[in-house]
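Page 47, continued from p. 46.
Same chain as before, 390 aa.
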Amino acid sequence: MSDHLLVLNAGSSSLKFAAYTVAGAAPVARFAGQVEGIGAAARFTVRDAAGASLAARDEGRLDHGGAVGLVTGWLERAIGGGRVAAVGHRVVHGGADFAAPVQVDATVMAALRALVPLAPLHQPHNLAGIDAAAARFPGVPQVACFDTSFHRSQAWEAQTFALPPRFYDQGIRRYGFHGLSYEFIARTLAAENPALAAGRVVAAHLGNGASLCAMHGGRSVATTMGFTALDGVPMGTRSGALDPGLVLHMITAMDMRPEEVAHLLYHESGLKGMSGISQDVRAIEAAGTEAARRALSHFAWRVRQAIGALAASLGGIDALVFTAGIGEHAAGMRARICEGLDFLGIAVDPARNAAHARDIATDAATTRVLVVRTDEEGMMARHMLDVLGR
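Result:
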């Protein structure tokens, strides 16, 4: 019998989870999986630490509470006489007050609910996961791990907007997101290549949500997302940064209601909106239409611009790291993004890129170009041990 750490990563229509035991001071992965299609026809999949499938079945219609119940019920049967000793949660927005993971209590939950308007696509589902886990495991400690915490190391110049100081004092500032992923990348590089990790690294977390982060010595210096997870480069369904005057124009001159604008920018823009096909790069590439070509070209252009800007914030670049769904698997998109970045010493070897090698740079390139699989759940498990005193 053994104690297990359960990590939940709740999105708008999915719930990723992972379970760990503890050996010494480190978490050891046992199971991982997800419930996809929450709110519609849900599908439940689980694999063991070696990647072997343990379950793959359709579950019908589920809400987030039902998805947590499904996951925890399966886990309790799988671990037999063991128990869930703690539950960790990815919480997208920690605001100005949460610069590190914390154990959840009523005061913390009240503060996190107040941040829902800043991350409407994610925060409600993150908090629903906490509520559901509390009901399933009464008295079991829960830990909130924030996507914004990693970026609190940034200088004031990187966090502020060009607004009167009172707005910054009221929490109107650039928070940045995907911090758990960037922290994992920083730790992985430090373990594999300490000299490179100590240098100037631009990491590109490119998935349905997409952002980039400039890191120096493993600390965040600048990032593309700002006050909300709508900012920065285009994403699967989100527009990324645009002229704020355009939003005013939509409301005042085009008679769009604020909620209509929000739905457009969060759900109907980005790769999906531009291509008219999907937010999935594979489907867009397969379509071969002019709209598909334009969507892919624009995405690559904006990411390439961001790499240049972040390299400037670092005073140069020693490594570019691709991670997350698009970054790890879309070789064609990686190639498009890196075209024209030779002035930064970036050159991609086509064969290595096609094979998804760890280092896809040419031998002659002066900047390393790496493909690193991120592990937000593993990062959260480590934070849980730290918060709860191992």
